[in-house]
Amino acid sequence: MYDIIIVGAGPAGISAGLYARRANKNVLIIYSGESNLEKAEKIDNYYGFVNGISGKDLYENGIRQAENIGVEVKKEEVLNIEMTLDGFAVKTIDNVYESSVCIIATGNKKLRPNIKGIIELEGKGVSYCAICDGFFYRNKNVVVIGNGKYAVSEAKDLENIVQNVKILTDGKEMEADTTFDVDTRKISQIIGEDRVEAIKFEDGDTIDVNGVFIALGEAGGSDFAKKIGVILDKDSIKVDENMATNVKGLYSCGNSTGGLLQVSKAVYEGAVAGLSAVKYLNERK
Amino acid sequence: MSVIVLSEDNFDEEVRKTDKKVLVDFYADWCGPCKMMAPAIEKIAEEVAEYAKVGKVNVDDSPEIAEEFGIMSIPTLLIFENGEVIHKHVGVTDKETLMSELK
Ligand SMILES: Cc1cc2nc3c(=O)[nH]c(=O)nc-3n(C[C@H](O)[C@H](O)[C@H](O)COP(=O)(O)OP(=O)(O)OC[C@H]3O[C@@H](n4cnc5c(N)ncnc54)[C@H](O)[C@@H]3O)c2cc1C
User: Fold this and answer.
1) Do A73 and A7 form a contact (C-beta atoms < 8 A)?
2) Do strands A126-127 and A96-104 pair parallel, antiparallel, or not at all (unpaired)?
3) What's the domain count of chain A?
4) Among A99, A156, A204, B99, whose CB has the most other CB atoms within 10 angstroms?
5) What is the position in ligand 1's atom list of the atom closest to the CA of A221?
């Protein structure tokens, strides 16, 4: 059992980890997949770098810096975060880690694919949470839109409830092994008025479906948030000035909370989240 | 006032035939996000007691009501006025938004 698990090793997650570790907490940072920072060729508006610094270097430096002061860092993809009686269970592909506090610092992942009909049909057959909404699709046909392990994990949560589940990659390559039916054709539209009725592909073909579950790429902060019951503001996690969400012991920082999408803001929010988490743990004792 | 437990038996009476606005929370016992929402729903019920009503529908116990309103995701929060749905929120929603819509 860790005091604090931080999901994400970008500037927000690392900064939170540094402050929490300095306050002698037992901290695990889990990360996998691309950080926005890694993609930035050069950061030249961040304090203290005379000639700027490559995003990749800054990212890797951050991870080493955290490791150097005793933060445990693991490279694993997180699929889900669940509440337990005394904290959180963070599920990765192969393991489950438990902590009293959890900090979501997963950056800003796009929640929705650009497919016509998605927004209009949200709550009318378009869902972002298999375990929450699978129940409404007993003995019906559903699809999961996605192409990674997260999509497979959502399909698994559905398979015992629904009649048939298929994975649609919307033109992308399937990146995870699976025994589910996979269709890689590009989707042009989700059809339906009051309820989802069918999916139309760009080649003009349609298939009848009752439910569409969105699980793009890796699970992001807002995917985790939806399943726990964290309040979102559009696709961003809603936090107060202490970076606390509406769920006790759960914090978020950096791009996942929206606003200014810059390193400086991620570092600041990470520091606040780390310190708030420490305060919460100390007061709980 | 506390949250009214709604079912087929009292839905018309409590929700449709009232001149107050009514907030209805569709939930289930196995739904994690619904549990997060529950304390806020109870608080709202207390705070709006003078001018509005708050009820909850367990979708396992009353699937017909859920079906009638096309509930496909929980929690879903509906606000009724004169028997008509005037606001719909899918997913956990903050208390302030719901409070302002019940005014
Ligand atoms: C091309 C480009 C250029 C930019 N240029 C600048 C600039 O010049 N100046 C500036 O200040 N900002 C710049 N930015 C923005 C900056 O990179 C971000 O604001 C910053 O990286 C946000 O930090 P973060 O920690 O919130 O998220 P990120 O850096 O995105 O980190 C997210 C972390 O979460 C992890 N993660 C996500 N999902 C999972 C999962 N399911 N399981 C496990 N781990 C997960 C990732 O591996 C990563 O470690 C740029 C961004 C881009 C894309």
Assistant:
1) no
2) unpaired
3) 2
4) A99
5) 38
Q: Domain of A190?
A: 126-214
Sorted by sequence, the CB contacts under 8 Å of residue A244 that are 6+ apart come out as A250, A251, A276, A280
Q: Which domains occur in chain B, in start order?
A: 4-102 (3.40.30.10)
pLDDT tens string A198-215: 999 999 999 999 999 999
Contact in structure between A55 and A41 (CB atoms under 8 Å): yes
How much distance in Å is there from the Cα of A229 to the middle of ligand 1? 24
Model confidence pLDDT, tens digit, residues A130-183: 988 898 999 999 999 999 999 999 999 999 999 999 999 999 999 999 999 999
Of A214, A232, A251, which residue sits at a domain end? Answer: A214
Q: A228 is written with which tokens?
A: 């726990």
- The residue to mutate among A46, A106, A260, having the most atoms of ligand 1 within 8 angstroms of its beta carbon, is A106
Is residue A117 in some structural domain? no
pTM to 2 decimal places? 0.91
Q: In chain B, whose CA is at the least distance from the CA of A122?
A: B90
Q: Please check whether residues A240 and A271 belong to one and the same domain.
A: yes
A120, part of any domain: no
**Together in a domain, A209 and A225:** no
If you take atom 12 of ligand 1, which residue's CA is the nearest one?
A262
